[in-house]
Amino acid sequence: MPPYLPEHDPEFLADPYPHYELIRSEGPAVWDGGRAVWLVTPQRVTAKLLATKQCGKDPRYGEASHTDSESPLLRLKSLWILLRDGTYHRRLRDIMTSSLSRKGVLALRKAVQDRTRELTADLAPGAPFDAARELAPGLPFDVVVRLLGLKDHPQGPLREWSRALFATLEPGMDRPTWERGEEAAEKLSALLTALLTSKNGTAASEALLLHDVREAYCAGYITLEEGVSSLSLMFIAGHETTAQMIGNVINALAVNQADLAETDGALSANPAAVNEFWRYDGAVQNTMRLARKELDVGGRRIAEGDRILFLLGAANRDPTFHQDPGRLDLARNTTTHLGFGGGPHYCLGAALAQLEITEVVHRLARIGTRVEIAGKCDWNPSITFRGPLSLPVVVSG
Ligand code: HEM
């Protein structure tokens, strides 16, 4: 019998959010019996459990590999490091670490600065614009397309495939979402296969990620499918989250009436201060694990095999850990936030995302003094990915 996957469950497909439901609680862990998942919110417990081997990814996606599945989407996802643990995860992760390390990202700095300047060139003090639609998506998309050597490929289909695949990361999806994901997985896999097997090679200075993955494939260190899958994960993770985060940051600046010159100055004085934006309002709000052994969380017994949803956004606002958590304060020097997750799956693109956010704030500070909300905002309904769909703002002069 094939292993159970939520996507194969007709009930799951009928209800967009069948397994999860947010519950408010003062306790360290809440069991939602009807939904069969623990919800964990405290910062300390979340950081500790994400870092240990006591919790791991759901093996129904990874270890029970679906490389021979008829579904292009399952084949692609089954090899994503995001969904797998152990030696497989480490082997593939190591290949992509150096191009996204702090040092690797320095090579992208000029390109990020130039592109941010272009994207903000038409913004003027007092002139309203929609930050979510007009500003946020451009920069992260261009950067990731460059990293993957996809710069010369038509952008329309790339954006469409990315959106379709990103939607399949939501816990629970309807049938049209699944079908769009299947089609996008098939087309993107074909394109990435062609890139990896191309005889033309890649210019390392431009397409850093493609170059590193290609070298590993040509050296026989990884299979073609592993390479294609890894590039596809980078393609999606590398920009959809950052695009949402740019919206969250601009919203945070507006809601907290931040002085843009001061904020920019704080980031120049201490680049790590940018982490406060992830603590305050990160683009990834939760991550799922399985208990690999029986756990005692604040006196509650979590059985081996139980599912645990770590509410990263709640942990980042845990008042027993962060003082006055609802206030954006770049001086608090937050390095302990969970906006990039924690433990072995800590975000590979953190340094790149931080660079992009820093540059956006820098450009806004050149336009005016404050950001103000200029109309009705609309937010992504996802329980996992937080960001505005529409964010009308104005930068005051
Ligand atoms: C605002 C931007 C971003 C946010 C909020 C974010 C958040 C996260 C979080 C919370 C995780 C951990 C997921 C888990 O534990 O299940 C993660 C993992 C990951 N992120 Fe990011 N990310 C961002 C940007 C990026 C960028 C720019 C890239 C690549 C260029 C990237 C690539 C990845 C990859 C490959 C993983 C999986 C790592 C692993 O499983 O070992 N992310 N990210």
Automatic annotation (TrEMBL):
<keyword id="KW-0349">Heme</keyword>
<keyword id="KW-0560">Oxidoreductase</keyword>
<keyword id="KW-0503">Monooxygenase</keyword>
<dbReference type="InterPro" id="IPR036396">
    <property type="entry name" value="Cyt_P450_sf"/>
</dbReference>
<dbReference type="InterPro" id="IPR001128">
    <property type="entry name" value="Cyt_P450"/>
</dbReference>
<dbReference type="InterPro" id="IPR017972">
    <property type="entry name" value="Cyt_P450_CS"/>
</dbReference>
<protein>
    <submittedName>
        <fullName>Cytochrome P450</fullName>
    </submittedName>
</protein>
<keyword id="KW-0408">Iron</keyword>
<comment type="similarity">
    <text>Belongs to the cytochrome P450 family.</text>
</comment>
<dbReference type="Pfam" id="PF00067">
    <property type="entry name" value="p450"/>
</dbReference>
<keyword id="KW-0479">Metal-binding</keyword>
